[in-house]
Amino acid sequence: MMTTIPIYPGTPPPVPAIQQATRASRSVNRTDVNAGLFQRELDSRIKPDGLTFSRHAQKRLDMRGISFTPEGLQRIEDAVDRLAEKGSRDGLVVAGKLALVVGVDNRTVVTVMDQDSMEESVVTNIDSAVFA
What angle is formed at CA 110 by the lines to CA 58 and CA 104, rounded to 5 degrees? Predict the structure, then answer.
């Protein structure tokens, strides 16, 4: 003979005993994880030490024939470090005849402008600027 279990609208189906045991064992293991240590490890694996150029910024570099020397790139990275020290989230880095809009938290160059494109541009959504 088959046993029937009444199901009412909005009532979740019964959970099998195996699933309940697995859920309980997961909660026990979570107490052993140090959240700060985990976050530092995760950040070190997914965040690069240097700058990352967004797809848009890379297109602008290619389109305008802009390249960086290692020293020039280091100056820009140092400028982003200074922005981070001041608590900036989105900054403008002016380096010679170039201007770069940078997401400071993730160290990503969002766009790059040369002197010709700066003359007619308005830069918005930044909270600080630095000269490199």
Answer: 130
- The helix (run of H) or strand (run of E) holding residue 113 is strand 108-114
Q: Kindly state the tokens that stand for 27.
A: 């909660």
The answer to whether residues 92 and 123 belong to one domain is yes
Looking at the whole model, is its pTM more than 0.85? no
| Percent of the chain at pLDDT exceeding 70 | 63
pLDDT tens-digit map of 83-120: 999 999 999 999 989 999 999 999 999 999 998 888 87
Residues 26 and 82 in one domain: no
Is 2 within the bounds of a domain?
no
Residue ranges making up the domain that contains 27:
17-46
**CA–CA separation, 118 and 64 (whole Å):** 13
